[in-house]
């Protein structure tokens, strides 16, 4: 088989066989297929798309390209949750301890943030002492004993995806449904959970800018999950504006603590209960979504969710006193307000650009190697649909530098004040097949 013929076949709209896809993934992972040929192939997939069979085959080959984690030593159904990316998305930080508090096993592999999006692993590292890299044995033991552990992606999990993703990033081939679906699902399948709850985001802050594309991505991933014998479901959620109020690392930990105590922003709480109920049902800890939701709400009220978060922090070497004393989290030196220039209603907050404003402060990274500053970030005092008076603060900036004019400019450019603003629908759809 020659790679040039396979590129040509896809370029001309052909359908690749299982053997051909295997050849491409094995060849690229081992280095026999070059970056320039793979780039041409990815671009042909971008334009010509793939059939369901091709996407499934691509995903399976990528998931088996390195370590495949066996979680069968963990008792019961192991659930994982994955978001296709967002801004200020504090959901996982709340869900992991909350869902574990009702006895469902949460074995969570999370990533770091890149560009305008944040990552759960970075946020957890804002807690003094918290270890995100834990050996497999410890991970399994913690989930068995405490029902929850959160870890970073292990070294050799789906290396084909790691290589392909890096190439996509620099060849304008990230926003392709077959490539995103195979990238995400190959990692989820290799990391071993029995049940997967997907949050497919849509809007300015997401890869999928419209609901139709998000729906196709969701259906594709759910189908792949089922073919790989994993119970899989997806919700399609809005990411046109950031989720909740806090964007950053330490400040999102603080927001997660508030949410676990029942005091989180409304949109974040709704996401948490919607996704959490699905996770609890998939883990067979409740028969209906209503029953699951009631269990979660109860554990927020009685403090069990907060206790579970403390336990999770202790288990992974962190200082759990931050839960009752969030002032012990890294604090920024300077605080600035961004006053509204007019009176009206917030009509737009462009999620990805606001994520970039947080990144400029140091809360996120431009390149994979950049360090991040846990203390800095943004707090949105207003969200779309809120009334605002001239001079009232739209956003509070937490910074470790004295001059934040560049950040303010990005915020002013991307927050629109109009005569009216409609709060966007948060959850567009639930997809189970
Ligand atoms: N997240 C991933 O892991 N892969 C993609 O392709 C997009 C988002
Ligand atoms: Ca948030």
From TrEMBL:
A GO molecular-function annotation: thymidine phosphorylase activity
EC number(s) given by UniProt: 2.4.2.2
Coiled coil (residue ranges): 279-306
TM helices/strands, residue ranges: none
One of the record's GO cellular component terms: cytosol
Gene3D superfamilies membership: Nucleoside phosphorylase/phosphoribosyltransferase catalytic domain, Pyrimidine nucleoside phosphorylase-like, C-terminal domain, Transferase, Pyrimidine Nucleoside Phosphorylase, Chain C
Cofactor(s) the protein requires to work: K(+)
Keyword Glycoprotein: no
InterPro entries found in the cross-reference section: Glycosyl_Trfase_fam3, Glycosyl_Trfase_fam3_N_dom, Glycosyl_Trfase_fam3_N_dom_sf, Nuc_phospho_transferase, PYNP-like_C_sf, PYNP_C, Pyrmidine_PPas_bac/euk, Pyrmidine_PPase_CS
SUPFAM superfamilies xrefs: Nucleoside phosphorylase/phosphoribosyltransferase catalytic domain, Nucleoside phosphorylase/phosphoribosyltransferase N-terminal domain, Pyrimidine nucleoside phosphorylase C-terminal domain
Reactions the enzyme catalyzes: uridine + phosphate = alpha-D-ribose 1-phosphate + uracil; 2'-deoxyuridine + phosphate = 2-deoxy-alpha-D-ribose 1-phosphate + uracil; thymidine + phosphate = 2-deoxy-alpha-D-ribose 1-phosphate + thymine
Superkingdom to which the source organism belongs: Bacteria
Pfam families listed in its UniProt record: Glycos_trans_3N (PF02885), Glycos_transf_3 (PF00591), PYNP_C (PF07831)
Keyword line: Coiled coil, Glycosyltransferase, RNA-binding, Transferase
GO biological process, one term: pyrimidine nucleoside metabolic process
The keyword Coiled coil appears for this protein: yes
Limits of the Pyrimidine nucleoside phosphorylase C-terminal domain: 345-418
The protein's assembly and partners: Homodimer.
Record-stated family: Belongs to the thymidine/pyrimidine-nucleoside phosphorylase family.
Function: Catalyzes phosphorolysis of the pyrimidine nucleosides uridine, thymidine and 2'-deoxyuridine with the formation of the corresponding pyrimidine base and ribose-1-phosphate.
Protein name stated in the entry: Pyrimidine-nucleoside phosphorylase
């Amino acid at each position: 088989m020659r790679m040039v013929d396979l590129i040509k076949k896809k370029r001309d709209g052909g359908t690749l066989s299982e053997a051909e896809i295997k050849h491409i993934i094995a060849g690229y992972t081992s280095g026999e297929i070059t970056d320039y040929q793979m780039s041409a192939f990815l671009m042909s997939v971008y334009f010509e798309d793939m059939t369901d069979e091709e996407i499934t085959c691509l995903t399976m080959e990528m998931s088996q390209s390195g370590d495949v984690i066996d979680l069968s030593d963990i008792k019961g159904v192991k659930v994982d949750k994955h978001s296709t990316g967002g801004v200020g998305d504090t959901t996982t930080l709340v869900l992991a301890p909350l869902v574990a508090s009702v006895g469902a096993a949460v074995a969570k592999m999370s990533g770091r943030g890149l560009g305008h999006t944040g990552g759960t692993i970075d946020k957890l590292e804002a807690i003094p002492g918290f270890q995100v890299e834990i050996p497999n044995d410890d991970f399994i033991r913690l989930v068995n004993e405490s029902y929850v552990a959160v870890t970073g992606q292990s070294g050799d999990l789906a290396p084909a995806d790691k290589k392909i993703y890096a190439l996509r990033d620099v060849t304008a081939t990230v926003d392709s449904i077959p490539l995103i679906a195979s990238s995400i699902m190959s990692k989820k399948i290799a990391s071993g959970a029995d049940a997967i709850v997907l949050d497919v985001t849509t809007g300015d802050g997401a890869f999928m800018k419209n609901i139709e594309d998000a729906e196709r991505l969701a259906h594709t991933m759910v189908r792949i999950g089922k073919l790989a014998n994993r119970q899989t479901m997806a919700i399609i959620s809005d990411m046109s504006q950031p989720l909740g109020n806090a964007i950053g690392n330490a400040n999102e930990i603080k927001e997660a603590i508030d949410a676990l105590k029942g005091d989180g922003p409304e949109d974040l709480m709704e996401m948490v209960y919607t996704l959490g109920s699905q996770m609890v049902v998939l883990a067979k800890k409740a028969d209906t979504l209503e029953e699951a939701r009631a269990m979660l709400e109860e554990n927020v009220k009685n403090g069990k969710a907060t206790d579970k978060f403390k336990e999770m922090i202790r288990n992974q070497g962190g200082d759990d006193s931050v839960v009752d004393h969030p002032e012990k989290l890294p604090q920024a030196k300077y605080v600035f307000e961004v006053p509204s220039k007019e009176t009206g209603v917030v009509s737009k907050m462009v999620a990805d650009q606001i994520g970039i404003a947080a990144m400029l402060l140091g809360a996120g990274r431009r390149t994979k190697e950049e360090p991040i500053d846990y203390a800095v970030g943004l707090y949105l005092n207003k969200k779309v649909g809120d009334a605002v008076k001239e001079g009232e603060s739209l956003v509070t900036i937490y910074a470790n530098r004295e001059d934040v004019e560049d950040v303010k400019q990005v915020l002013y450019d991307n927050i629109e004040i109009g005569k009216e603003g409609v709060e966007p629908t948060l959850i567009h759809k639930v997809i189970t097949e």
